[in-house]
Specification:
- The protein has eleven helices and 14 strands.
- It has helices spanning 36-48, 106-110, 124-127, 130-144, 146-170, 179-213, 236-253, 320-323, 326-348, 365-376, 393-397, and strands spanning 2-11, 14-20, 25-29, 68-75, 82-89, 93-98, 101-102, 115-118, 221-226, 264-269, 318-319, 353-357, 381-385, 400-403.
- The chain has a six-stranded antiparallel sheet, with helices on one face. The chain has a five-stranded parallel sheet with strand order 8-12-13-3-14, with helices on both faces. Strands 9-10-11 form a three-stranded antiparallel sheet.
- A hairpin with a 2-residue loop joins β6 and β7.
- The radius of gyration is 24 Å and the shape is globular.
- Residues 277-304 and 422-426 have low confidence and may be disordered.
Length: 432
């Protein structure tokens, strides 16, 4: 499926604006503060029920208005036309309708389509906390596989209960009360740990192909799951033994210190000749998997200038969170999103839409051309930019080009629509 039309009502800088998209490459061109990022955020809000930029949803409402609403139409040969409506008002919450039928949960909404987004805040995937990386991987996997969503929920539920019991034991309760929670936690931890390990292994293969293609000659990148459970081979019985051995220390702190809640995802440049962690050896692609082969993308060669003596990379790889440049971190996030899109397409047979906000500005010309070639075979992509010259004339001729600002949007810096302009068309009843 692809996004065919989007209507934003009282959403950020849009009073009432509608835009149409093509099924392939879409280039959204506009000056700073013309609403480029808001446009992508609105589409994401409709398909995911949340913002990639903020948890405070009241910020999404145009200043002075009492609600925000997004209407989005999807199309595609498999499912046909689909209509999504999301309304939000402070104090009333959020309601989502798919083809006129109310969606019961955000998990249900997220399982109906695959979409991927890069906004400036996405760099925190590399630079931010392990919790952010775990949440990103789990959200992607849960939308792809309902059983993964169940495993993640089970782990969170039993983790809360076990931590509460650890505090109770710290305050004088019998340590024996931990036994049933240890058993439940060991089962949930091993189940989620194995699923997360296998998912990252599948993503790593695809990530390496794309990230390496976007890198200077001779560099090779991968992602690696760092998990305490790897030390016990993700075995439930061994996890239980580890919990019992750690019980005195965990009781003193009143907190579970072992398990998948402490996993991290690392973005690494590998040393020349280094092999990936054998625990992350990628599984053989399933039949029908259209993941590009390692030589499918043309290598971009960057001329070398004067340099210092060669630097030996650590045997475990160079961690881009600590030592990567802004451009390397951006390329790593982009490669992860492309890997996720490829994996989702292999599982579902459909390419999800890529929303990419200003990804061209920090790529050199060779990598821009390579990225556009990758996107040409990746279904629908919607890219924002301040400058059409980041694209060739041929690329623009084959793309859907959308010029901002749209009618129905606020001027840059405006807090409310001019008094002589007609306000947004009211919803049938209200936003909800």
């Amino acid at each position: 499926m692809f996004v065919s039309t989007l209507r934003l009502v009282n959403f950020r800088s849009y009073c009432d604006a509608t835009v149409g998209f093509g099924s392939g490459l879409n280039v959204v061109v506009g000056q700073n503060a013309s609403g480029k990022t808001n446009l992508l955020e609105g589409a994401w809000f409709a398909l995911r029920g949340g913002s990639p930029r903020t948890r405070r949803e009241e910020k999404l409402i145009t200043w002075g208005e009492r609600f925000a609403r997004v209407e989005l139409a999807l199309d595609g040969p498999a499912a046909g036309p689909q209509a999504v409506e999301v309304g939000y008002a402070p104090g009333q919450g959020k309601r989502v309708h798919w083809n006129g039928v109310e969606i019961a949960s955000l998990d249900e909404l997220r399982g109906r389509s695959q979409v991927f987004i890069f906004v400036p805040e996405s760099l925190l995937l590399v630079k931010g906390s392990p919790a952010r990386r775990r949440a990103h991987i789990d959200t992607f996997a849960a939308a792809l596989d309902p059983s993964y969503a169940v495993a993640a929920r089970d782990l969170q539920g039993v983790l809360r209960q076990r931590n509460a019991q650890l505090l109770a034991v710290k305050n004088g309760a019998s340590p024996m009360a931990l036994d049933p929670w240890d058993a439940q936690f060991a089962h949930a931890a091993a189940e989620l740990g194995r699923r997360r390990r296998d998912l990252v292994a599948e993503l790593a293969e695809r990530f390496t192909v794309t990230a390496t293609a976007l890198a200077p000659e001779g560099q090779r990148f991968t992602i690696r799951l760092v998990s305490q459970l790897a030390t016990v081979d993700y075995d439930e019985a061994t996890v239980l033994d580890e919990l019992r051995a750690r019980r005195p220390g965990e009781t003193r702190h009143g907190l579970s210190s072992f398990g998948p809640q402490r996993d991290d995802l690392r973005f690494l440049e590998l040393a020349t000749g280094a092999e990936d962690d054998p625990g992350l050896a990628a599984r053989s692609p399933s039949q029908g998997d259209e993941t590009p082969a390692a030589g499918a993308f043309e290598r971009v060669v960057v001329a070398a200038g004067l340099s210092c003596s060669p630097v030996e990379l650590p045997s475990g790889g160079r961690d881009l969170r600590l030592f990567g440049s802004q451009g390397e971190q951006r390329a790593a996030v982009l490669a992860l999103l492309l890997a996720e899109q490829q994996l989702a397409a292999a599982r579902t047979g459909q390419h999800g839409t890529l929303f990419l906000d200003d990804v061209m500005s920090e790529l050199d010309d060779g990598r821009r051309r390579l990225l556009v070639r990758i996107l040409a075979s990746a279904g629908q992509s919607i890219i924002t930019t301040t400058d059409k010259h980041y694209f060739t004339e041929q690329e623009l001729a084959e793309a859907t080009v959308i010029e901002l600002p749209l009618g129905g949007s606020l001027a840059a810096g405006a807090a409310a629509p001019p008094a002589n302009e007609v306000g947004p068309a009211p919803p049938a009843a209200d936003a909800l």
